[in-house]
Amino acid sequence: MILTTEALGKSFDGLRANNDINFTLKKNRVHALIGPNGAGKTTFVSMLIGRLEPTDGAIWFDGKNVTEMPAHRRVAQGMGYTFQITSVFARLSCHENVALAARRRLGRNRAAVDEAVARALGRVGLGERAEEVAGDLSYGHQRLLEIAMGLASMPRLLILDEPTQGLAESEIAAFKALIRELSSETTILLIEHNMSVVMELADEITVLNFGEILAHGTAAEIHANPAVQAAYLGTETADAED
Ligand SMILES: Nc1ncnc2c1ncn2[C@@H]1O[C@H](COP(=O)(O)OP(=O)(O)OP(=O)(O)O)[C@@H](O)[C@H]1O
């Protein structure tokens, strides 16, 4: 187990966005978190990474209770993540973008940072483009650059929030191949709307609905689960098209 939550909950002024979430993440797996819009996925991962404070419950990462640990210390402990909204600095080069992320873990050790940047950019296929300005990259490449930023801190857990949103089909195929490669060296938590990506990549799937865990299982189990099918009725079109 690399991460566990115990009865994790979050309320926003009376709205219960997450309720009683008991979640476990096994090492070196690809675990997908799915659910209809507004189900509470972003709220949940925001608590995992330390951007939002839980209202109740606890989070354990690699045997440590990190519930109250600031975000930057969680990164230093081995959590890496990318956000739903592109967060690259458009006027900085690819190298500089990834170096900013690498320094969060490696400090000012220039040689170590340079090495980590080269490795991370190489991993996502942007090794040749290190000196290009990030804003000149295509949208798909900017999303890969973000994954490189997440990888730069050499995370033991990489959390990806809707990484394929806005990607073309060919880019999604390349993304799937990348995740398969990365899954041999790190644990991946994938928040994803694209069901073909989820069904192909995920070893395990957790379904959130109205802020609670509705189901958990393999792709085949989730696919066949009547409660999951019911939760997606009515939102099916939106989710299938994402
Ligand atoms: N900062 C906030 N203040 C108030 N309500 C919030 C806040 N953040 C989220 N919510 C509410 O909490 C609920 C869960 O939202 P959340 O963004 O976690 O869902 P989601 O599953 O990530 O949705 P999506 O798939 O659309 O990204 C929603 O009703 C949302 O409006």
From TrEMBL:
Presence of keyword Transcription regulation: no
This protein's UniProt keywords: ATP-binding, Nucleotide-binding, Transport
Positions of the ABC transporter domain: 3-235
CDD domains cross-referenced by the UniProt entry: ABC_Mj1267_LivG_branched
GO molecular function ontology, one term from the record: ATP binding
Gene3D superfamilies associated with the record: P-loop containing nucleotide triphosphate hydrolases
Protein name: ABC transporter ATP-binding protein
Organism field: Pseudooceanicola antarcticus
